[in-house]
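Methods: example folding runs. The two proteins below were folded one after another, and each record is reproduced exactly as written to the output file, sequence line first and structure-token line second.
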Amino acid sequence: MKKGVTASNKGRAEFIDVQPSVGTYILGGTSVNTSNEAIKYKKYISWNKEMDNHLAKVLTDQMAQGNKCDGDTWKPQALQAAVIYLNSKLHLNLTKDNIKNRLKNWKKYYGVVSDVQTKQSGFTWDDERKMIVVTSDEWSSWSAYVESHPDAKGMQNKMIEHWDDIVLLCGKDRATGQGAENIKEGLEAMAEDEETEVNSISVTGARARPSSSTNFMPNKKKKLKRDSLVEAIGMIATSFQDFLASKKKNEEKPSGIEIYEVVSMISGLTSHEVFKVVRKLMNGDVEQFKLLKSLPDEKKRD
């Protein structure tokens, strides 16, 4: 059995294992099987748009199942699912190494474009054409940039296929909501503000008219009552949050493919907008997706 070694075919061909993979993978509720008869033997394969499309679909589904680790790495079962799915759909014989190598290329693209977008490199990212634009006047600057960023070689003025997929699947950050304080933290912050204000008033009054320490007793009693109230409300808030978390955990989350199929049918959305919505719904409340799904087509875009 031959193991994979890199071959040169437009920079994207790879030798792969000639032994077929056999298994089943369910994507979006559809079962696909691989068998020895269904797979054609090939010594190498060149990644194309159709393969990238299927890879993006299966990894989106795997990400929805929680099989993407923190950062930009994937759990072994996600890679195996991608192998089985692509092999069965396209009659190939890919291995995990082939998937890893393709993801390395995607991460390379993501890293270079992110650098161009965020670090004042002087070059322009064209989001419509999905490419780094380098004019003839900028060529010398680009050459210098490539010397310090070798991964950028050959990426100038070249459309990056499936860029929206790459952003979704290779980005290190994931949507985590609005980042607002939770109820308990908010109450504690409010209590601290009120305590500071009360003490400030007391100290000011003490400077204006010196008196015995008994004048501060009402403030201390108020603080004790307020602390008790904050603690009680905090316990209620925590219990409520635990209840919501348990309720959400028990809800069956839609797969990434199911979300994509609904969102992609909304007329007027660009590919970038579609994947932006998909990412938001995958990390959001299940009820949001249910609501979107129930709306008539003409209302979904709103």
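Second run, written to the same file directly after the first:
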Amino acid sequence: MSFAWDFKHAISLHFQAMRFHLPFYNMRRLNSHQIRTRSNGWDAVMLPLVSFLYERGWRQGFTLWAGFPGPEKEFEMMKDYLNPVTGGRIIDASCASGIFSRIFAKSELFSLVVALDFSETMLKQCYDFIKQEQNISQENLILVRADIARLPFASSSIDVVHAGAALHCWPSPSAGVAEISRILRPGGVFVATTYIIDGPLSFIPFLSLIRKNFRRISGSNMYLSKHELEDLCATCGLVDYTYVRNGRFIMIAARKPN
């Protein structure tokens, strides 16, 4: 099966899912070997307990120790980046329990909101929260299970990709951002928040290499400096990089050239 799905097909599947009460689309099934070889940091979000706790204290902790403003304030911060692409299709990549997916859907700024995550337990939690909301239209909101490094969407078909507190969890940030760049239409926008590691020596390539190799061995998360985040976007073909930061929190934005 080709993973370059167009949205006509996706929407058709959406209505089939509603008819049969399916919570989400499992767009990619990985074998047990592929799952075992993922990093420990990525595996943590697959646990049912983490999925249950994510909006019950876990995400709130980001504000206390990393300076994250909180979902509503983060949404207000990113509106300037989203203005040129309102009315289009947005993917909430690594959506977790769907905090931002629900915010995007309720804002009515987008024609389609895709809540996407690799974790089945996170998507089930996302689905449960959506069912509890009274003012979310399910006509323009779909849930998709997929690997960030192999997105099941056609090239140049998406207007916005958002990744909230996610980049540092991806097994390969470069593979993820490259895929995002591929599916963005010309002029499309990538907005992300993550934890930042920087300092007077963060630009030294040798230290960066040590950090990356340690991460590969230990399975810990990948924390990048603001210089590395800018290089990551540029390497993947994105331009007009900009950022806002507060403590260890950073929000970055870049776009695909016209």
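Comment on the second run: The domain at 7-255 is CATH 3.40.50.150 (Rossmann fold).
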